[in-house]
Amino acid sequence: LGTTALFHAVTLKSANATRCLLSAGAWITEGSCGETELHEAAANNQLEILKVFLEDKRITPEYINKKDKCGRTPAYRAAYCGFKDCLKLLIVNGADMGSITTTKDSVLDIIFSRVDQPVKFLKEILDCGITKDKEDKITLDFGILCRSGNDSQTSVVYNILNAAHQNENTELLEHPLVETFLRLKWKKVKWFFYLLIFMYTMFVLTLSVYVLLVMDNVRRFRTVTRIARYNLIILAGGLLTHG
């Protein structure tokens, strides 16, 4: 990286030259450390150049979330430098807030540690995931939380809880997008939650009965004792599997 005309156009901060080169067929290249022109533009607060790349029909989420050898994406570079406009543009166009570097830092972690007023910024990002059409139909895009899938989206929400200060947690969790996401998640997993409560309750009751029968050594209840023992084994196995 650094020998192409496109790279020089980006480093010289020329959006017009970048647009002309892309129109002529030039495209994103990868340097020795895995960085691309998008990394360079994001790290130097080149909003217009990023817009030029994102308007190109060849751009895909793979390019937007391309990692260098340290696992840093263009969004990570923008967040680390505190360039909120570039970061917002990248996230809205598919950058992954849950992307993790080789040092286990996510883009979201860097937002909280390096971006000015991170909670306000995240609320603006979340607002972009809510749209309303002419018929007043509201559409929620949970992909704005994380582009990697449902598990990663849940991880991002969990990281919001951990990374924000306690008085800011509620503010973010009360955002309609996050609140709806958590509500839908709860509808999917609540049966499993209730099942666990039932299993723990049965385990405690069965264990109590079994201990009482064994301690009293009541022979006439040997069948009940045996049944209780088998139930304990089954319940313990199920709970251990979950753990």
UniProtKB/TrEMBL annotation:
Coiled coil: none annotated. This is Ankyrin repeat-containing protein. SUPFAM superfamilies: Ankyrin repeat (SSF48403). It comes from Oryctes borbonicus. ANK repeats lie at residues 70-102. InterPro entries: Ankyrin_rpt (IPR002110), Ankyrin_rpt-contain_sf (IPR036770), TRP_cation_channel (IPR052076). Keywords: ANK repeat, Glycoprotein, Ion channel, Ion transport, Membrane, Repeat, Sensory transduction, Transmembrane, Transmembrane helix, Transport. PROSITE patterns: ANK_REPEAT. One of its GO terms (cellular component) is transmembrane transporter complex.
